[in-house]
């Protein structure tokens, strides 16, 4: 990571998604200048930012985008997330302008935790996992699965149920999970097709 030249440490290589911010100053200029666009131009704006990044980074892909949204009304958030994740393969974090302008430490800390996980880091690790003390799990490589089905409110007769499955990916810590979500018939509790979900 490259930090501002006024800090005592100008560069640092994170280890397992962790790093210490002592003696570091944030870089003053982002790689890509701040860019704004109208909500109905989100796809065009994101492609512009991605192409600008390719030029500035010498052909390297942009890895992460922070989007500051004016409000949470309308389809802007969903459109931005869909385009970033499905069209561009880009990790993104959205923030609301009203919280960013206030510089609320708690809000920014929560955003930092989200960014850390999205970029492959861990926010917590079970102490027992690090010391190999979780019965059965620590003894042999293990995947922990979780599954749930959520249903529409009572009285709704048509909405599909939503099934979700997660699985741990980082034995022995078991703190990173991949997940899949799918729709299934209304009020169906059993996950119909676990392999296609």
Automatic annotation (TrEMBL):
<feature type="domain" description="Piwi">
    <location>
        <begin position="64"/>
        <end position="197"/>
    </location>
</feature>
<dbReference type="Pfam" id="PF02171">
    <property type="entry name" value="Piwi"/>
</dbReference>
<protein>
    <submittedName>
        <fullName>Protein argonaute PNH1-like</fullName>
    </submittedName>
</protein>
<dbReference type="GO" id="GO:0003676">
    <property type="term" value="F:nucleic acid binding"/>
</dbReference>
<dbReference type="InterPro" id="IPR003165">
    <property type="entry name" value="Piwi"/>
</dbReference>
<dbReference type="InterPro" id="IPR012337">
    <property type="entry name" value="RNaseH-like_sf"/>
</dbReference>
<dbReference type="InterPro" id="IPR036397">
    <property type="entry name" value="RNaseH_sf"/>
</dbReference>
């Amino acid at each position: 990571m490259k930090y501002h030249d006024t800090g005592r440490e100008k560069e640092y290589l994170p280890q397992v998604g962790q790093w210490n911010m002592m003696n570091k100053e944030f870089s003053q200029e982002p790689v890509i200048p701040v860019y704004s666009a109208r909500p109905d131009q989100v796809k065009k704006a994101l492609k512009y930012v991605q192409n600008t990044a390719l030029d500035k980074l010498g052909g390297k892909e942009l890895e992460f985008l922070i989007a500051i949204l004016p409000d949470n009304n309308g389809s802007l958030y969903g459109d931005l997330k869909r385009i970033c994740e499905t069209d561009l393969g880009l990790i993104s974090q959205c923030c609301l302008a009203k919280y960013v302008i206030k510089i609320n430490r708690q809000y920014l800390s929560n955003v930092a935790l989200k960014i850390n996980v999205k970029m492959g880091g861990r926010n917590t690790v079970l102490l027992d996992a690090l010391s190999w003390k979780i019965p059965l799990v620590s003894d042999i490589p293990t995947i922990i699965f979780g599954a749930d089905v959520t249903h529409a409110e009572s009285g709704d007769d048509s909405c599909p149920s939503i099934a979700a499955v997660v699985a741990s990916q980082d034995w022995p810590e078991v703190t990173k999970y991949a997940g899949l979500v799918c729709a299934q018939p209304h009020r169906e509790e059993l996950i119909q097709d676990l392999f296609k979900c």
